[in-house]
């Protein structure tokens, strides 16, 4: 009996996390939809549930129109809620953060698939497969990270991964800085386009309820715009419709929807040659990861430093490439049926070029250390 009680105690917090991580954002979404529509019927209930499902990447189809873009802002919001719930549910006796996250993610996935099936009516619905997978990843990963932070002993890396940890840590640092750099560029562009965004808002004239909804959607869209900026910094850029492109060389888009956050997209035409220099910063950060941020003993061999530096750059490329990939999909008919960067080329260029920069940085760091020892 005591063993059964301990087993139940180890599963219960994870399952409660799954239930709360789904219920809290779903209820919040329903309340927002009800406030905007001034209606509390079944249609509002279904719409609120669909808002959360779309936020975790379930997509949405309305007749022939499809929304397949994963809204990064929604993913971050849902993940933050799941992490907060998991941190409260975890206790010092939680044995394994990964198992906790897997159980919480599986529970959330089952709930999401059920809600997707229940709210798919007629020609309007979401993909229950994507709903289950999205909830599993968002809730599971967020819960595992929260538990690992709350209960440090609950996350233990295998012994074989120890030699790679310096490169992983340096790569995560470089990837975070590159994303921060992309976000800074977006903020600068937004500061110069405030008036243009205000004009778009005024043209839409959303009213009070619609204004609240538009403000929330605009806020949630900003991480996706940062993902697009990351793709532009990597090189391939991104599309805003068929046969369109936005890159560091210029903008080739005939017209954009009247959506205020899109005001940050510069006017069509080529950019000055100097703008391309902005693409050098991510490469330098990847090189710096191999040069200074890979923590290894002073007597580490040259080839080990080069390998760790390349690994750090590759990790940064994987992180930024994955973020950029979330900006690929469809967000409506017509122009917005094809938006975002080319996934394979964007991720491939980031991983290969930044791994090379990290390897060069690792070699420079090795000789820098030798010179310091000689002095």
Automatic annotation (TrEMBL):
Membrane-crossing segments per the record: 14-36, 69-87, 99-122, 128-149, 170-192, 212-234, 246-265, 271-294, 306-331, 343-364
Alphabetical list of InterPro entries matching this protein: DUF6350
Pfam families membership: DUF6350
Swiss-Prot/TrEMBL keywords: Membrane, Transmembrane, Transmembrane helix
Keyword GTP-binding among UniProt keywords: no
Domain of life per record: Bacteria
Protein name: Uncharacterized protein
Species of the source: Aeromicrobium piscarium
């Amino acid at each position: 009996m005591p063993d059964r009680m301990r087993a139940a105690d180890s599963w219960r917090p994870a399952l409660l996390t799954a239930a709360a991580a789904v219920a809290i954002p779903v209820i919040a979404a329903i309340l927002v939809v009800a406030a905007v529509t001034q209606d509390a019927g079944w249609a509002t209930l279904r719409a609120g549930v669909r808002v959360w499902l779309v936020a975790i990447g379930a997509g949405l189809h309305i007749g022939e129109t499809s929304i397949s873009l994963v809204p990064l802002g929604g993913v971050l919001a849902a993940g933050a809620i799941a992490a907060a719930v998991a941190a409260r549910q975890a206790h010092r006796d939680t044995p394994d953060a990964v198992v906790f996250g897997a159980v919480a993610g599986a529970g959330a996935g089952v709930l999401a698939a059920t809600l997707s099936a229940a709210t798919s009516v007629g020609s309007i619905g979401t993909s229950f497969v994507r709903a289950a997978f999205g909830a599993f990843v968002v809730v599971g990963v967020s819960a595992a990270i929260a538990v690992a932070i709350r209960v440090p002993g609950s996350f233990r890396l295998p012994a074989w991964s120890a030699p790679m940890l310096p490169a992983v840590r340096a790569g995560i640092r470089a990837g975070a800085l590159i994303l921060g750099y992309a976000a800074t560029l977006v903020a600068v562009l937004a500061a110069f386009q405030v008036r243009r965004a205000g004009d778009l808002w005024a043209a839409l004239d959303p009213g009070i309820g619609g204004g609240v909804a538009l403000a929330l959607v605009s806020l949630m869209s900003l991480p996706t715009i940062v993902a697009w900026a990351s793709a532009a910094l990597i090189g391939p850029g991104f599309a805003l419709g068929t046969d369109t492109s936005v890159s560091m060389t210029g903008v080739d888009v005939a017209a954009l929807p009247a959506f205020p956050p899109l005001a940050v997209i510069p006017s069509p035409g080529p950019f000055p040659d100097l703008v391309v220099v902005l693409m050098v910063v991510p490469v330098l950060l990847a090189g710096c990861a191999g040069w200074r941020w890979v923590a290894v003993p002073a007597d580490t061999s040259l080839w080990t430093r080069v390998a760790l530096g390349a690994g750090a750059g590759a990790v940064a490329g994987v992180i930024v490439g994955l973020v950029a990939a979330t900006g690929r999909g469809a967000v409506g008919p017509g122009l917005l049926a094809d938006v975002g960067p080319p996934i394979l080329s964007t991720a491939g260029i980031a991983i290969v070029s930044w791994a090379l920069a990290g390897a060069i940085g690792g070699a420079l760091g090795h000789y820098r250390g030798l010179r310091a020892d000689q002095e």
